[in-house]
Amino acid sequence: MKFNFSFLLIFIVTFAFAQLPKGFVYVEDIIPDIKIELRYYSINNFIGKPIEGYKANKLILSQNATQALKKVQDELTANGYYLKVFDAYRPQRAVNHFMRWAKDLNDTLNKQEFYPNVKKENLFKEGYIASKSGHSRGSTLDMTLVDIQTGKALDMGSPYDFFGVESWVNYEGITKKQKANRQLLQTVMIKRGFRNYPNEWWHFTLK
Predict the structure, then answer these.
(1) Higher local confidence (pLDDT), 177 or 6
(2) Looking at residue 39, what is its pLDDT?
(3) Residue by residue, what is the 3-state secondary structure of 25-69?
(4) What is the rounded CA–CA span in Å between residue 98 and residue 123?
(5) pLDDT tens, 73-116?
(6) Which listed site, 51, 140, 148, 150, has its alpha carbon 20 to 30 Å from 34?
(7) What's CA 83's distance to the chain center, in Å?
(8) Pick the catalytic residue: 37, 113, 166, 200?
(9) What is the arithmetic mean of pLDDT over 148-176?
(10) Is position 200 annotated as part of the catalytic site?
């Protein structure tokens, strides 16, 4: 069988020069020391399966959001912390996956861990899942803080993606230390131009 070298050349060139859309970047190219744990690329999420559209543990954001985030990381590193990001750009097909899952009321694999006090049929009504996500515009991300010395994430009083009042930024039923940890994240992000979603301590969008 005759080998098609022209096809191979086209494939190599296309792959080598594939780029993100204008205005988007791979965050690690700008912030090499950032920690990335894309939960929707793994099974460690409220669905319990990898989510459609997440092909690798690669963090994508808008150029502007990434530059602002670099200032956050630089300030945190000087004070003994660094960022760990759980999600940033989210393709619409991932949102569609969430929607299909939410409508399947029999699939409650990770209910006890992520939404023990919320009925699955109420996830849309109570705002935990939406048909459109700000993440898909590229300037929203979910994150926590990690202690450089211990390598452990700070205790924020509730896990990432926990559906409940415990995740509200101003929830009173947590310890003083947990409140201080949340406030530290809030302060440094707001200082660099991000705004928080009050019902999720981890969720920020560049203004």
Answers:
(1) 177
(2) 98
(3) EEHHHHCCCCEECCHHHCCCCCCCCCCCCCCCCCCEEEHHHHHHH
(4) 11
(5) 999 999 999 999 999 999 999 999 999 999 999 999 999 999 99
(6) 51
(7) 11
(8) 200
(9) 97
(10) yes
Categorize the per-residue pLDDT at 18 as very low, low, confident or very high, splitting at 50, 70 and 90.
low
What is each CA distance from 103 to 17, 53, 157, in whole angstroms? 40, 19, 29
Q: Which helix (H) or strand (E) holds 147?
A: strand 140-147
Structure tokens at 69: 């985030």
Residues sharing a CB contact under 8 Å with residue 169, sequence separation 6 or more, in sequence order: 182, 186, 196, 198, 199, 200, 201
- Residue located via tokens 């200082």: 191
At position 121, the amino acid (one-letter code) is: E
Q: How many residues does the structure list for the chain?
A: 207
Residues in CB range of 132: below 8 A, 6 or more apart: 95
Binned at pLDDT 50, 70 and 90, residue 13 comes out as very low
